[in-house]
From TrEMBL, chain A:
Pfam families: Ncstrn_small, Nicastrin
Gene that encodes it: NCSTN
Location (main, coarse): membrane
InterPro entries the record matches: Ncstrn_small, Nicastrin
Gene Ontology CC annotation, any one: protein-containing complex
Keyword set, alphabetical order: Cytoplasmic vesicle, Disulfide bond, Glycoprotein, Membrane, Notch signaling pathway, Signal, Transmembrane, Transmembrane helix
GO biological process terms on file: Notch receptor processing; Notch signaling pathway; protein processing
Top-level division of the source organism's lineage: Eukaryota
Signal peptide annotation: none
Name of the protein described by the UniProt record: Nicastrin
Organism (species): Gopherus evgoodei
Residue span(s) of domain Nicastrin small lobe: 54-227
TrEMBL record, chain B:
Compartments it resides in: Membrane
Protein's job: Potential subunit of the gamma-secretase complex, an endoprotease complex that catalyzes the intramembrane cleavage of integral proteins such as Notch receptors.
PANTHER family with a match to the protein in the record: GAMMA-SECRETASE SUBUNIT APH-1
Quaternary structure and partners: Component of the gamma-secretase complex.
Protein name: Gamma-secretase subunit APH-1
Length: 683, 266
């Protein structure tokens, strides 16, 4: 029957389609189950390493630095290197290359790394952080930090250029500025390191000189970076993507953030100040770096300096007659100074281009606080620029500056000494201002020639490095309020700075009443070096910023996201220490322009959540009136699209998709071939 | 552990079954439909039994280890019983389907016999059961690692693949046995199927003692294979002839027209 035949053919087609759908369904199941997170089979195979920090790729106008892994991660058999001889197994003897080296922190030196760099038997490196810090010091930074972007060049003080006179960071091995083609991770947790070493001891140790047998313990590191070559290339590719693609895949981002600044006497930021007004600029940096991404404790290189600066600002604001001083004082916190002076170069550029309320001509003098926490027998060294001092108008102003400082140190436990007149400035933000205009200024530091800091820009520049010691058994609240010796020492420096600034600004009163508060200094040191999530920080931030305060160790890396935690916290602390509480409602505080008052244009109003009552769980918020402003700290090279600039910083950070690490066992090739053979027989 | 393990294990587990499928099912559209529907029935039984187990686990204390183990055993038990119940339901459905096919056919005979349906249904059950056993293992087998870092046996993938293969075969033979039992009202055949299913599933609790679970399972498989072969009308002469290489008759049903007499063929 025709109908019957038609039905049979239809059934055949339907049957074939049924089989197709089944196949497609099975394929989908395979792929779908592959992405099942944490399914039990995956947990049987892999141990993820959670507390790690990767080394990422950074690029500047001419080079790429950092590390790179393959697209799908690099796998290698684990080998633990605890002494230098263990490296021989990895480089020549071991029978199962490529190896993934687990390195003790003490051995993380330039010589060893260059050996690993040249070898093709290495697929990656995991560095176990060394506790305590290596006794001989460790600095992956350059011997001559920010060389070529300061003021000394072939045209200005050539005998001082390229650290000819003195290498500021003699312990610097330059590791952070090398380019590695394998991934390097930092193992921050000693327990995880122990798990890896246990796996190595169970499976990878050669027994009695014989070759270790499969299965072997292996590690896989994922850290594939999208950017290559240099900033010019990666920015060009990113801009092409943004311009022409519907779904742009940018490959790198410029390092940028915000500078924090505040003035002693309020100024109108929407217009320029009077050209005859004089401003004294006080500056510190607030960022640091290390070999690994977002690991930048920066205790001595940044935190101690800006905490001292904040304490000096607080002390000055307490003086009753500061609003009548002839000169204004601008407290500036520069972000990104580690990467060729991003913040200060941008501020100088904005001043030159008239985009900043204050012009270069308004600057009366400059005072910078460099590393100040490791003073040797309470001496604080005063560095000046020998080249500009040859100018007859600058020299007496510098001398006035130094004199004011020395007068202020009488009675305090700080001895100010000038370094030799022919010595150049250490790496400092002041150098960028000198590039634009000769300004009288000093840089205060705890070192005369090379740094006292033996862990400059490394992961070991922590609270221990600046000798912060707390007694045992204190609760977090007690630790917050405990005044350490370091805090007392930094408070002394802050007192000297505040008194000197008062004198320089034209103050004529008695300066002995100006005192920085050691308790505030100690609380700030605790908040910026140990735990940001403490009761004081909680009380001075805005209400809806829950992610700002964390329980892990604070890090001060500029990053590519805007407004990192450090910048925001410095802003809030400065507002709290230098601002005044005003009796506004929440509406008035959040919308100050609604109530017309010319005074209000000069101030910034912040609604902070206040401290918690001991009896209740709610907080009492209030409005703070301050002069704290944020200004963009992005290198002018990116504004001007001069990505190959040698004038301004061109540092960018590569983008990536997936960064993780895990360990597992790998089976022998023989097992795989056996499986293939059985499978063939089956078919 | 790379592609070698992935392909090796998938061919070990599914190779023979897919071979069976290829040679005996794929060309006949009715058999394909019965295969897919059988797989679907097994899937529904798994859904329901996993729902029960899931509710039981969520309602219980996750920290109590013996309780969780007990719940797992209960879950397996319940799942086996539910699978066999669905096999029975599928039998009922196919019985009805045969009546429909007979009504639709030209010559009053169904184009497919209940025995063939039993085989294909069993294969469908087996393939879907195998898929659900093996798929997530295969997905993880693609990665660079192998099982063992927490002390589990290295042979996890291999033994899982063999276990899956034996389960697929067992489901096929159970299908034949079960449907035969239903057809000829021999309830003890159905009970035997349920009983052996429970034994094989229970044996997997002896893992990682893989010899304890695999060897008895294979022995059981050969036993059920022989029984199913006998029930399907096979005898030792046919077996010997096939081994000697004589071609068997094409594996699709010959349309018996009333005019032809099989006795006169000789």
């Amino acid at each position: 029957m025709a109908a019957g035949a038609g039905w049979r053919m239809g059934a055949g087609e339907r049957g074939r389609r049924g089989a197709e759908t089944l196949f497609r369904g099975l394929l989908f199941c395979v792929l779908g189950c592959g992405f099942c997170w944490g399914n039990s089979v995956e947990r049987k195979i892999y141990i993820p390493l959670n507390k790690t920090a990767p080394c990422v790729r950074l690029l500047n106008a001419t080079h790429q630095i950092g590390c790179q892994s393959s697209m799908n991660g690099d796998t290698g058999v684990i080998h633990v290197v605890e002494k230098a001889q263990d490296l021989k197994w990895v480089l020549t003897d071991g029978p199962h290359p490529p190896y993934m080296v687990l390195l003790d922190g003490e051995l993380f030196t330039r010589e060893l790394m260059l050996q690993l760099k040249g070898s093709s038997r290495i697929s990656g490196l995991a560095v176990a952080i060394s506790k305590p810090s290596p006794a001989q010091g460790f600095s992956p930074g350059l011997k001559c930090p920010n060389d070529g972007f300061g003021v000394y060049s072939n045209d200005y003080g050539p005998q001082y250029a390229h650290c000819n006179w003195t290498a500021w960071n003699p312990l610097g091995n330059g590791l952070a500025y090398e380019d590695f083609n394998f991934p390097i991770f930092l193992l921050e947790d000693a327990n995880e390191t122990q798990v890896i070493k246990q796996c190595y001891q169970d499976h990878n140790l050669p027994q009695n000189g014989s070759v270790p047998e499969y299965p072997l313990c292996a590690m896989q590191l994922f850290a594939h970076m999208h950017a290559v070559t240099n900033t010019v290339t990666c920015m060009r590719r990113s801009s092409l993507q943004t311009a022409f693609s519907l779904n742009p895949e940018e490959v790198c981002d410029a390092l940028s953030d915000y500078n924090v600044w505040s003035t002693l006497k309020p100024i109108n930021t929407s217009s320029k100040i009077n050209p005859l007004d004089e401003v004294i600029i006080v500056a510190t940096r607030i960022d640091s770096h290390s070999f690994f991404w977002n690991v930048a404790p920066g205790a001595e290189s940044a935190v101690a300096s800006f905490v001292t600066h904040l304490a000096a600002a607080e002390a000055l604001h307490k003086v009753p007659d500061v609003q009548m001083l002839p000169r204004n004082i601008m407290f500036t916190f520069f972000q990104g100074e580690t990467f060729d002076y991003i913040g200060s170069s941008r501020m100088v550029y904005d001043m030159k281009m008239d985009k900043f309320p204050i012009r270069l001509d308004n600057i009366h003098s400059f005072l910078e606080l460099s590393q100040v926490a490791l003073r040797n027998s309470s001496v604080l060294w005063v560095h000046t620029d020998p080249v500009s001092r040859r100018n007859d108008s600058i020299q007496p102003q510098v001398e006035t500056l130094v004199e004011a400082l020395i007068n202020s140190s009488v009675g305090a436990n700080v001895t100010l000494q000038e370094v030799g007149q022919s010595q150049p400035l250490p790496p400092s933000s002041f150098q960028r201002f000198l590039r634009a205009k000769s300004i009288p200024g000093v840089v205060l530091a705890d070192h005369r020639t090379s740094f006292q800091n033996r862990y400059y820009q490394s992961m070991y520049d922590t609270a221990e490095n600046i000798l912060m010691k707390y007694p045992e058994g204190l609760s977090p609240e007690e630790t917050l309020d405990y005044v350490t010796d370091t805090a007392k020492s930094l408070a002394e420096v802050a007192t000297v700075v505040a008194r000197a600034l008062y004198q320089l600004a034209g103050g004529t009163g008695n300066t002995s009443a100006i005192q920085a508060d050691p308790r505030t200094v100690s609380r700030m040191l605790y908040g910026f070096l140990i735990k940001t999530n403490n009761s004081w920080f909680q009380s001075i931030i805005k209400q809806d910023l829950k992610g700002l305060l964390g329980d892990e160790l604070p890090q001060h890396y500029i990053a590519v996201t805007t407004l990192v935690n450090t910048t925001q916290l410095v802003q809030y602390v400065l507002a709290n220490l230098t601002g005044t509480v005003v009796n506004f409602t929440k509406e008035e505080c959040l919308n100050p322009e609604k109530t017309p008052n010319p005074e209000k244009e000069m101030y910034v109003y912040t609604w902070v959540q206040g401290s918690r009552d001991p009896n209740s769980t709610s907080r009492v918020p209030f409005c703070v009136q301050s002069t704290v402003h944020l200004t963009k700290a992005a290198s002018p090279a990116f504004e001007l699209k001069q990505w190959g600039s040698t004038e301004y910083s061109t540092w960018t950070e590569s983008r990536w998709k997936d960064i993780r690490a895990r360990i597992f066992l790998i089976a022998s090739k023989e097992l795989e071939s056996t499986l293939e053979a059985i499978a063939e027989a089956d078919i | 552990m790379t592609l070698a393990v992935f392909f090796g294990c998938s061919f070990i587990a599914f190779g023979p079954a897919l071979g069976l499928c290829l040679f005996s099912v794929v060309r006949e559209p009715l058999r394909v439909i019965i295969l897919v529907a059988g797989a679907f029935f097994w899937l529904v039984s798994l859904l329901l039994s996993s729902l029960v187990w899931f509710i039981a686990v969520k309602a219980s204390d996750p920290g109590d280890e013996p309780l969780q183990k007990g719940l797992l055993i209960f879950g397996v038990l319940f799942s086996v019983l539910l699978q066999e119940a669905f096999r029975f339901l599928y039998y009922k459905l196919l019985r009805k389907a045969i009546e429909g096919l007979v009504a639709l056919s030209e010559d009053g005979c169904s184009p497919i016999s209940i025995q063939q349906m039993a085989y294909v249904a069993g294969l469908g059950f087996g393939l879907m059961s195998g898929a659900f056993s093996m798929i997530n293992l295969l997905a993880d087998a693609l990665g660079p690692g192998t099982v063992g870092i927490h002390g589990d046996s290295q042979l996890y993938f291999l033994t899982s693949a063999f276990m899956t293969m034996v389960m697929i075969f067992l489901h096929t033979f159970w299908g034949i046995l079960f449907f035969h039992g239903c057809e000829t009202q021999r309830w003890w055949e159905m009970v035997a199927v349920i009983f052996t299913h429970l034994i094989v599933s229970g044996l997997t609790f002896w893992n990682p003692l893989y010899l304890g679970s695999l060897i008895p399972s294979y022995l059981l498989m050969f036993a059920t294979a022989a029984w199913a072969y006998v029930l399907s009308g096979g005898c030792t002469q046919n077996l010997l002839r096939s081994l000697q290489g004589e071609y068997l008759v094409q594996p699709h049903v010959q349309r018996r027209s009333p005019a032809r007499d099989p006795a006169s063929e000789g």
